[in-house]
Amino acid sequence: MAESDPKHLKIALSNRESAARSKAKKALHESELEDKVETLETQIDILTAELKLEKRGRMTADDECVQFRIRLHAGEAHARLREDLIQQLNGEVRRLIEEASVQREEMSRLREEVSEYRRRESERMNANMLDQLNINQQFQEKPQQTNYNFE
């Protein structure tokens, strides 16, 4: 009954059309963003190459131009491989930094444990030495009474 209702059908059709428009708009936006990302990645590659060249201040202008042309003509595959390698290396650096941080925390925790162990051991040894001292004093204050029963 509700399916044959013209008002319901009109609303459902309107909803479908709206959803289709929304989906198309989303796809267009994603495509534009992907284009922007690709453009920005290309710009990053170019700027990275330029920065490296600037750091080589001792090189002559001709050498810098040659290096830049070589990098520009290396090809998209080379640039992608380089980008992947940089990402992998950055990931490895982040992992190593995190691992070093964890290891520093672990070393700090272990130092605290060792310090606490040494403190407790020192207290235990001091208590043992105090007990031993008390026992020695007791023996010195009281003459030893021995019962020799030879029956």
UniProtKB/TrEMBL annotation:
Q: Which stretches are annotated as coiled coil?
A: 86-120
Q: Which residues form the BZIP domain?
A: 3-67
| Alphabetically ordered keywords of this record | Coiled coil
Keyword check for Lyase, yes or no: no
Q: Which domain of life is it from?
A: Eukaryota
Q: Where is this region: Disordered?
A: 1-31
Instruction: Spell out the InterPro entries in the cross-references.
Output: bZIP, bZIP_sf
Q: Name one GO molecular function term.
A: DNA-binding transcription factor activity
Q: Where in the cell is it found?
A: Nucleus
Pfam families in UniProt: bZIP_2
Descriptive protein name: BZIP domain-containing protein
| SMART domains assigned to the protein according to its UniProt record, in alphabetical order | BRLZ
One annotated Gene Ontology cellular component of this protein: nucleus
